Amino acid sequence: MIEARELTKRYGDKTVVDNLSFTVRPGEVTGFLGPNGAGKSTTMRMIVGLDAPTRGAVTVNGRSYARHAAPLHEIGTLLEARSVHPGRSAFRHLMALAHTHGIPRRRVDEVIELAGLTSVAGKRVGAFSLGMGQRLGIASALLGDPAIVMLDEPVNGLDPEGVRWVRNLLRSLADEGRAVMLSSHLMSETALIADHLVIIGRGRLLADTTVDDFTREAGGGGVKVVTAETARLRSLLAAPDVTISSSSAEELLVTGRDAREIGTVAVQHGVPLYELTPQAVSLETAFMELTHDVVEYQSAPADTERKAA
């Protein structure tokens, strides 16, 4: 488990991480999200002792990273896949890491096979593609069979098969009871993998919740209603703040009333309903809405760019 309490990091007069508290629990995949410049990388570096907090503290399985005698058995990390000597082979790189913790060669062979690197294990890392480098970084993170896995953009550069492999791998690690912390800009993948979300902006906590609760509370998706009496129900639900659209003869999309209200109105007036389903917004949409005011660099709308051209 990772526990951050009032974690703060300043560089001069610039506060990069600001009083940040959160927990990454065993048995869950926690998506660690935020716009560029939000402080994600700095937070992850503080977790493993690469940066020292200005204030606050963070523990890995109950103690600071530096106090663990064998940290690779506690937490495996992928923060920068290219931080490997380019002249070493993948096998030699992993063996060098293994020697620091007395990890046997058979474990090196296991993670090489797990990461799909068996055919290139003897090649120099400097000749690896971005995707192969990512696989090696994940193999390194898993080398100590750690209780916690923390990965920063693990699917960057991977092909669809590799993305699916990472997705299934992280799910299986969490199902084994490990704590998984995943930082990614790919909202669609995060929505498929994550159980929990920790979202930050300008170093501050914006949300600490489940994926389902976050997208549901974002609202805006409306409620899908299926009934044979759409015209009658439309008139019963009509109000200045209610929007009702239709994509078929028996289907309505109602915005401005929740499912409970719609169901109550239907029962009171004897309108049979065949479906009443809240339509949650996507994780990407909910994330964009939440972080709109804390994005460091705002892109111009597409129509504005066309006019400028």
From TrEMBL:
Under Gene Ontology molecular function, one entry of this record is:
ATP binding
Q: Where is the ABC transporter domain?
A: 2-227
Q: Does the keyword Nucleotide-binding apply?
A: yes
- Which PROSITE patterns does the entry mention? ABC_TRANSPORTER_2
Keyword annotations for this protein, in alphabetical order, are: ATP-binding, Nucleotide-binding, Transport
- What InterPro entries is this protein classified in? AAA+_ATPase (IPR003593), ABC_transporter-like_ATP-bd (IPR003439), P-loop_NTPase (IPR027417)
Question: Mind telling me which PANTHER family this protein's record contains?
Answer: ABC TRANSPORTER, ATP-BINDING PROTEIN
Q: Which family does it belong to?
A: Belongs to the ABC transporter superfamily.
What name does this protein carry? ABC transporter ATP-binding protein
The species this protein belongs to is Streptomyces phaeofaciens
